[in-house]
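Case study.
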Amino acid sequence: MKRRPGVGAVQVIDSICKAEGEAALVDLFARTKCNRLLIGACQPFMYRRKLKNEARKAGFNSSMVEIFDLFGMARRGMVEPATGDWTLRAAGDVKAELEKLKFKPDLPVNTLPINRTALVIGGGIAGMHAALSLADRGVPVHLVEKEEHLGGFLGARVEHTVDGLAPMAMATDLKLKVLENKNITVHLHCEVEKSVGALGSFESKLHFKDSGENTYLHHGAAIIATGGHEGATGEYGYGTSETVLTQGELKKGLSDGEIDAGELENVVMIQCAGSRQPEGRRYCSRICCLGAIDNALKIKEKNPEARVFIFYRDVMTYGFYEQYYTKARSAGIIFMNYSLEDKPRVEMAEGKPVVKFTDPVLNEEMELPADLLVLSTGVDPEESNRRLAAAFGVSLTGDGFFAEADAKWRPIEFPKVGLYLAGTAHSPMPLRSVILQAEAAAQKAYTYLSGREVHTAAVTSMVKDALCVRCQRCVHICPYGARSYNEADNCIEVNAAACQACGMCAVECQNNAAEVRGWSDKQLMAVIDANLMGSPPPSIVR
Amino acid sequence: MDLQEGSIKDLWKDIYHTGNLHYCFNCSTCISGCPASHGEPPLLVRNLARKVILGLEEDLLMDDTPWACVSCSRCEEMCPMNVMPFEMILSIRQWQCRNDETLIPSAIVEIYKRGYTQAVGVNTELRESLGLPQLNTITNNPEQLELFREMLMKTQVVSDNDYMFKG
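After joint prediction, the assembly is written out as follows.
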């Protein structure tokens, strides 16, 4: 290695993941006369940020320090158990990394101050929770609600849940705390129309529906918690009679006394009304089974003589919620399975619904006159999600909910750093999960807001203006909205703070005018050459 | 079938008064191991449970499959919800007899003669060939058999139907 052109010194340090190894490395940082540093280690993603910080303290430009996975890269592609000498492959990798580093330009590190203010969109339980969580940490919060009052869907309609939570009381309590908190500014009856910027410095345009006025808010991070609402349906005779209603309507009727459980003899509930089928909601809303069981138990509690039938396709009382399904069965609630091909049919006779169905156990046609027919219609995403997603440059799922960056590793973040999501804005979920997500999103936002400044990725894309033909393809393809066309100066501009260096623009550009700094064509060609010349044959994959 | 007209809400209380019956979620495990499920007509334990839960009285009264049960108790061992299906089948038999005396089995005469209910006698040769000891049944104790017969005659079901023992 030492003989390769450009290499000043080679040092072997044992276990830099441990304290003594790290000390040796810091010592090396101080002593070395080289200006670029290549570190090959195993699983460096565990401590990459720490090493870069140490290098920065020792006076290195952090873009001149490259840390790569020595062991993993060499082993990748090898047949298990490893055949051949992996060290030869590793040596090849080191050569390639060297070439990349050699041609790497000295990239500037931008340090931007963080605006320690947060924007929370949605004044439901999730939004208020997240806002309070941040405000209690001393972060000024703007809470935006599109309705005229705080509370959200659940907080205004649902008195209790099956697992003993009381959303209405909870919302009232949160509302008081929010209004009392001097760190929180509440903006009612308005929507965010546009948001530009990146982590640390966003600027969002707020449109007030009443006055038609616009306000601009400056904030360092945003949490989207827009929630959802009970879906609508036209199935099973809904809307033709007062005896056909939704679970939400039944729940409200039972809690404010409009529906007397004592008078009910037969109650039929149909799950998945308009859900989990090609037309309508294609997804499972996850909370309707719990809602139906809650209502059924409430009816049984007040009137044990009533018979409650629940028609279901699959009972989704997952995790510890299974206990409520068991409890419902023990209370004598009768569960009837049906399939999408053979849905129950509802006819009206003397103003009362008659449900006709095939019992799958006895395989017999049956009919059941009901006093009440209750439909579980699932959860719909908010209409405003589409506008909001466009305003923030984030994506929605096909069903209209907000899509997280990664279901497993980044479940409450958007791909764009500084934007987080919580609650039913992400997907329908029970209240406990909503609260957990709100708390998680607030904490995640706080990890950035608690810092004073943000070091933007030194690796950003750039425009070679002489080669650029202003076709604006890069502007359209950029998933982070980092590129824009400046009409006044007739050029493409890159917002360094927003750019995440994904390289999409470099791929899209027909003229090689878009380039990611530190990933130039010259570098990559050198890497390929190094890999092909003098390295062991790449025939290890069989 | 009209579940309003043709079903009795609390039939299960009448037949099989245990809370466990309602835990049944129709998994069919009881049927999968049941030797009588191969019979004609088959004994379908799950369907019986369903009929009891739905309260299909007439249907259940006409159903003679509970009598096909061979008392092996496999369903009891396998039921994940501890419904105790075997107990349920016995309960259904009792309920049927309570409601329709023509259903009282003629086997009661056989029980009187033999002294036991299950056909354990058929395995005598097999047991011998395997070197297993002889079964200790009541037939080996004539005195106790006589005592058993006296007790049996005193039960209400026999005294009410004593015509079966004449001749």
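Observations recorded in class. The CA atoms of residues 104 and 153 of chain B lie 15 Å apart. The two ends of chain B are 45 Å apart (CA to CA). We will return to this complex in the next lecture.
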